[in-house]
Write a structure and sequence with these properties.
- Belongs to the Nth/MutY family.
- Its cofactor is [4Fe-4S] cluster.
- It catalyses: 2'-deoxyribonucleotide-(2'-deoxyribose 5'-phosphate)-2'-deoxyribonucleotide-DNA = a 3'-end 2'-deoxyribonucleotide-(2,3-dehydro-2,3-deoxyribose 5'-phosphate)-DNA + a 5'-end 5'-phospho-2'-deoxyribonucleoside-DNA + H(+).
- With 217 residues, the protein is mainly α.
- The protein is 61% helix and 0% strand.
- It contains 13 helices and no strands.
- The protein is elongated and about 60 Å long.
- It starts with a helix and ends with a helix.
- The chain binds a DNA duplex (10 and 10 nucleotides) through helix 7, helix 9, helix 10 and helix 12.
DNA sequence: ATCCCGAGGG
DNA sequence: CCCTCTGGAT
């Protein structure tokens, strides 16, 4: 128990951020988009799937419906068929089409650049809103998804299980100019090494800072 | 079988 | 906190 405390004191947040930067210097959003509207739609679609599958579907969708107005011109049924391969297609179709209506009625067809308005869109929670703010507008955000949550818990950066509480703790801990990159790096790390089931601790660059590894060995 | 870069609802 | 929505990959 003493060794753990010392270990954690040695490897504070700066060390973790530094290793993350060296390990995943190019971490970035892997969704394909050309403007805030496309990113908003792609991000709503990305729940419970991979970016690669979303990109396949949006390549077709954005070609046919590049604006909220165009998206409402095809039938909901046609819309569902286009996005069907990614799953959860009925819920997502309904949310996206309602979001398009809201964008037109209350935002002149533009995607709002603040969290409060974004979260009012159906199908848009903190995570989706954060991704849009960060990647479409360059506004500092550190949205917490399942990867970020899991990795932050394991590294001892937060003990909370509620994503919004974890977000608060992380943003308090990390300099604002690093929020966006850190979000992407934690996700890459969660996907590459820090898997939900079987984390690859022996080859993890963060193992010396991580309570999971140091307490297991 | 079980898991995906979630959100909304009970 | 738990459940459901969905299909596809593994």
């Amino acid at each position: 128990m003493e060794p753990n405390r010392l270990m954690m004191r040695d490897c504070k947040i700066n060390r973790i951020l530094c290793i993350l930067e060296q390990t995943y210097p190019e971490a970035h959003c892997e969704l394909n988009f050309r403007n805030p509207f496309e990113l908003l739609v792609a991000t709503i679609l990305s729940a419970q799937t991979t970016d690669q599958k979303v990109n396949k579907v949006t390549a077709v969708l954005f070609e046919r419906c590049p604006t909220p107005k165009k998206m409402l011109e095809i039938t909901p049924r046609e819309f569902e068929e286009i996005i069907r391969p990614i799953g959860l297609f009925r819920t997502k179709a309904k949310n996206i089409l309602q979001t398009c209506e809201l964008l037109i009625e209350e935002h002149h067809g533009d995607v709002p650049s603040n969290l409060d308005d974004l979260v009012k869109m159906p199908g848009v929670g903190r995570k989706t809103a954060g991704v849009v703010l960060a990647n479409a507008y360059g506004i500092p955000a550190l949205p917490v998804d399942t990867h970020v949550l899991r990795v932050a818990n394991r590294l001892g950066l937060s003990r909370e299980k509620d994503p919004s509480k974890v977000e608060k703790e992380l943003t308090a801990l990390i300099p604002m100019e690093l929020w966006i990159d850190t979000h992407h790096r934690l996700i890459f790390h969660g996907r590459r090494l820090c898997h939900a089931r079987k984390p690859e601790c022996p080859v993890c660059p963060l193992k010396d800072c991580c309570p999971v590894f140091t307490s297991a060995s």
